[in-house]
Design brief:
By secondary structure, this protein is of the alpha+beta class. 35% of the residues lie in helices and 15% in strands. Strand 15 (557-563) and strand 16 (568-570) form a beta hairpin. The protein starts with 5 loop residues before the first strand and ends in a 7-residue tail after the last helix.
C-alpha cells in the first residue's frame, strides 16, 4: 500500500463505517497511528444547491462511491465536499489488514469523487484554452498549487503533527489572499491522495448544464434580441418533444433538409399557419395560441433523440455516409495472408471510341473487367466485352487468370517475358458487384471449376471492393460542350492497349502499405509483381491451376464452325492450321461434303479459334486471301460481323453493277462496229470450214493477215 490507496471496511472497524471509501495518508511510527481521510459530501442547507438536491432526489448516484450523490449541478467542485480525518491505532490497523477486515478497494479511482464520470484524458481536452475563454482551467489549477506548494514541501511535518487540520487552516489564513479553510484542506488532501496530480484539482466541468430541465415552464436559452427574453415557448414539455420527433420521423428522408422537415412539421403536426404583419414580414403562429418550437428548439430535440450518424443516413443515404462521412474501418488486405486467397472484380468503360468500318460509324464501346489479388495488389486477370458490361467479360477475365500470361498476350499479338506477368491460376474466393458478374453466365460451364466462395458487394457501394476500384484509369473530366476521344485503333488493338496498361500497373502501383516487416527486411521492392514473387517463392499461394484446354472449354464463348475441304469458316473468315490438316477433318469434308463442328472463340480478338475434333481441341489461325500484313487479322467479332456485312453489301451491289457494265461496253462496240454486239444466227448442221472453198479462201487471205507473206 502507498499514500492515497483507497480502502474499505465491509463490516466497519473501530471508527470506520461500511460502504465508505477511505484514503490512506500515513502510517506514523512516531505516534503509532494511521491517518485515513474520507471525502464527505456536505449536506445541502435549505435553498442552497437546489438543482443538486433535485438531481440527488431523482436517484442520481455515483456508480463507484456509496453514499456519494451525483454532482449534476453546474459549477459543483470540491467545495461541495469536506475532508474528515480518521485516526487508528497502528497495531489495530495492521491486525485488521491481516484478518481481512480492511482491504484495498477492487477499483482504485484515478480522480476524486467530485470528478466521477470523467477521465484524465477527457479533462485534458477541457484544459485547453478555448476561443473567448478569459482564463484557462490550467491557470486556476496553477493558482491553487501556488498556495498548496509550501504544505506539499513540508508534507512529513504536516501529517506528523498532532492535528494536521490545524496547521493547514493556519496556512490557509496566512495566504494572500486568505483561502477558505475547508476548501483548502479538501484541495490539499485530494492532491496528496491522488498521486500529486494536478488533475485532482480540476473543476468538474463535465457536469455543467447537465441538470434536468423537464417540466419547467420558463423558457431557457439565450434571449432574443429582437423579440425579447420571454418571447416564444419552452420545449421542456414531453408532449411537445414527442410531436417534434413525430414530425421528424414522418418527413425525414433522402435529400430532405432539416428546415424543410421543420416547416412541414409546424404545418401538419402542430397546426401552425403563416401570418403576415403590416410590414410584410411573415412568421408562424398557432390559431389557438398553443405552444410550438422554434427552429433551434426543433433541431436541438431532434439532435438529442437521433445521433448525427443516423441523421446523416436519413438525409444522404447509407452509401454516401459510408463513402464520405464515415472514417476508415480498416484495410481489406488485413484479412488475407496468401496470394489469390481473395480477389476482387470490377469493370470500367474505355474512354476511347474506335472508328467503324461502315461510313460515318463508330464501334461500340469497349468494357474492361479486371481482377485483383488483395494480398499482393497485382491485377491477375483482364477480360473484355463490347457495347456494355457483359458476363462474357468476367469469363474472359477468369480465362486470363487461369492460363499463362505469355500465351494469353500472344492471342492479341503481344510478346512479353514470363516475369512481366507471373500469375497463373484461379482464385477460390471472388468478390464482385451485383451486375453481370453476379450472374451464372459469368461462371465456368464446369461446376467443378466454379469458385468455392462467391461474394457480392452491395449495389452502388464502391468501397466494398475498393482494392480494384482504386486501380481503374481516371480520366480528367473536361467541362464545356460534349466531346469524345476518337482513335484509329481497332477494338482488338484497344484491348491490347488495356493489357499493356495492366502490365504497367503491375510494375508501378505502390504496395508499400501491404508489405509486412519481414518483406521490408528482405528488400522486396514495393510493386505488385515483386511482392507476388516474394510470396509465391514461399508457397503462400491459394490459386487453383487448370490445363489450357480446360480453361478454353470453361470460359470462352462456344460457337459453331463450318468445315470445308480447304479450311474451317466462321462468318466468312477462313481458319486453318497444320494440326487441323493432320486431324483428317478437312479430308472428311472433301469426301462427305461440308459439315459443322463446335468450337470456342475469344470474342474480343478472333485471330485464333479452337475447334472440337473428337476429343481433341485444335487451335486454328485466321488466314488472309492474299499475302498481306497480319495485323489486320486481329479484330473482334463485332468488326468481323461488320466486314461480313460489307462483303454481302458488295455482292448485292455487284449484281446490278455486272449487268450495267456489260451493257455499257456492248453499246460501245455497237457504236464502233455499227452492228449489234451479239448478233450471230444459229443454223443447223456443221460449219463449212473444212470444205474446199473455205480451205482455198483461207490459203489466199493468210498472206494478208500475217506480216511475212503468210509464213508462220
Amino acid at each position: 500500500m502507498r499514500t492515497g490507496t483507497q480502502l474499505c471496511a465491509p463490516e466497519g472497524f473501530d471508527a470506520l463505517c461500511k460502504g465508505v471509501r477511505y484514503h490512506l495518508l500515513r502510517s506514523d511510527p512516531a505516534r503509532q497511528r494511521v491517518l485515513l481521510v474520507e471525502f464527505q459530501r456536505k449536506r445541502q442547507r435549505g435553498g442552497e444547491g437546489q438543482r443538486s438536491a433535485e438531481i440527488s432526489s431523482r436517484g442520481g448516484a455515483s456508480g463507484g462511491h456509496p453514499g456519494v450523490a451525483d454532482q449534476g449541478a453546474g459549477g459543483t467542485t470540491y467545495a461541495s465536499y469536506r475532508p474528515v480525518l480518521h485516526f487508528l491505532s497502528r497495531h489495530r490497523f495492521e491486525q485488521a489488514l491481516e484478518r481481512g477486515l480492511i482491504f484495498a478497494c477492487e477499483t482504485q479511482d484515478e480522480l476524486p469523487p467530485w470528478l466521477s464520470g470523467v477521465t484524465v484524458v477527457e479533462l485534458q481536452a477541457y484544459a485547453e484554452l478555448r476561443v473567448g475563454q478569459k482564463r484557462s482551467h490550467a491557470a486556476r489549477i496553477d493558482q491553487t498549487l501556488a498556495h498548496l506548494w509550501p504544505l506539499v514541501q513540508n508534507l512529513d511535518q504536516i501529517l506528523g503533527a498532532e492535528s494536521p487540520d490545524t496547521l493547514i487552516n493556519a496556512h490557509a489564513r496566512a495566504c494572500k489572499p486568505p483561502q477558505h479553510e475547508t476548501r483548502f484542506r479538501t484541495a490539499f488532501y485530494a492532491y496528496v491522495c491522488f498521486g500529486c496530480s494536478r488533475w485532482a484539482l480540476h473543476y468538474p466541468v463535465h457536469h455543467i448544464g447537465h441538470w434536468d430541465r423537464m417540466g419547467r415552464e420558463r423558457k431557457f436559452g439565450r434571449p432574443s434580441r429582437l423579440k425579447g427574453a420571454h418571447h416564444g415557448h419552452g420545449s421542456n414539455d414531453q408532449e411537445m418533444i414527442d410531436r417534434i420527433l413525430e414530425g421528424y420521423r414522418k418527413y425525414a428522408g433522402p435529400g430532405q433538409h432539416l428546415r424543410a422537415i421543420y416547416r412541414r412539421t409546424l404545418r401538419t403536426v402542430f397546426g401552425c399557419v403563416v401570418q403576415t404583419d403590416p410590414q410584410g414580414r411573415k412568421s408562424f403562429v398557432h390559431p389557438a395560441g398553443r405552444a410550438f418550437p422554434t427552429f433551434g428548439q426543433f433541431a436541438y430535440r431532434v439532435g438529442q433523440a437521433f445521433p448525427l450518424e443516423v441523421r446523416q443516413v436519413y438525409k444522404y443515404g447509407h452509401t454516401r455516409v459510408r463513402t464520405r462521412l464515415q472514417h476508415s474501418l480498416g484495410r481489406f488486405a488485413e484479412s488475407v495472408g496468401n496470394l489469390m486467397e481473395r480477389t476482387e472484380q470490377d469493370a470500367y468503360c474505355c474512354d476511347q471510341v474506335a472508328k467503324g468500318y461502315l461510313p460515318g460509324s463508330h464501334q461500340p464501346t469497349l468494357w474492361v473487367v479486371r481482377t485483383r489479388c488483395i494480398a499482393s495488389g497485382m491485377i491477375v486477370g483482364i477480360g473484355f466485352s463490347i457495347g456494355g458490361e457483359a458476363a462474357s467479360a468476367y469469363r474472359l477475365a477468369k480465362f486470363c487468370e487461369a492460363i499463362d500470361k505469355v500465351k494469353f498476350c500472344s492471342l492479341f499479338g503481344l510478346q512479353i517475358r514470363e516475369g512481366d506477368w507471373p500469375s497463373v491460376g484461379v482464385s477460390p474466393h471472388v468478390i464482385h458487384d451485383r451486375g453481370p458478374g453476379a450472374t451464372a453466365k459469368a461462371e465456368s460451364t464446369e461446376p467443378a471449376l466454379r469458385p468455392v466462395i462467391k461474394e457480392s458487394a452491395p449495389s452502388y457501394a464502391g468501397q466494398s471492393k475498393a482494392s480494384i476500384e482504386t486501380t481503374h484509369p481516371k480520366a480528367v473530366k473536361l467541362e464545356g460542350k460534349p466531346h469524345y476521344v476518337e482513335t484509329r485503333l481497332s477494338i482488338a488493338q484497344l484491348a491490347a492497349q488495356e493489357i499493356i496498361r495492366t502490365i504497367a500497373d503491375n510494375h508501378s502501383i505502390d504496395v508499400t502499405d501491404r508489405l509486412n516487416n519481414d518483406a521490408v527486411e528482405a528488400g522486396v521492392f514495393p510493386i505488385p509483381v515483386a511482392f507476388w514473387n516474394y510470396l509465391d517463392r514461399r508457397g503462400r499461394n491459394h490459386a487453383v491451376s487448370m490445363r489450357f484446354e480446360e480453361a478454353v472449354r470453361a470460359y470462352l464463348t462456344p460457337i459453331e464452325l463450318t468445315v470445308q475441304d480447304d479450311a474451317v469458316y466462321f462468318k466468312e473468315m477462313r481458319f486453318d492450321s497444320a494440326a487441323l490438316q493432320r486431324s483428317g477433318a478437312l479430308q472428311k469434308a472433301h469426301t462427305c461434303g461440308t459439315y459443322r463442328l463446335g468450337g470456342y472463340m475469344l470474342d474480343i480478338c478472333v485471330r485464333h479459334l479452337w475447334v472440337e475434333v473428337g476429343a481433341d481441341l485444335i487451335e486454328v489461325d485466321a488466314m488472309l486471301a492474299i499475302r498481306d500484313g497480319e495485323e489486320q487479322l486481329y479484330i473482334s467479332v463485332v468488326e468481323l460481323e461488320q466486314l461480313e456485312r460489307l462483303r454481302r453489301d458488295g455482292k448485292l451491289e455487284l449484281q446490278s453493277h455486272r449487268l450495267a457494265a456489260r451493257a455499257e461496253y456492248e453499246a460501245a462496240f455497237e457504236q464502233h462496229a455499227g452492228q449489234p454486239f451479239d448478233q450471230g444466227v444459229v443454223k443447223g448442221g456443221r460449219n463449212k470450214r473444212s470444205k474446199a472453198a473455205s480451205v482455198e479462201e483461207r490459203r489466199q487471205i493468210m498472206q494478208y493477215l500475217r506480216a511475212e507473206g503468210g509464213k508462220r
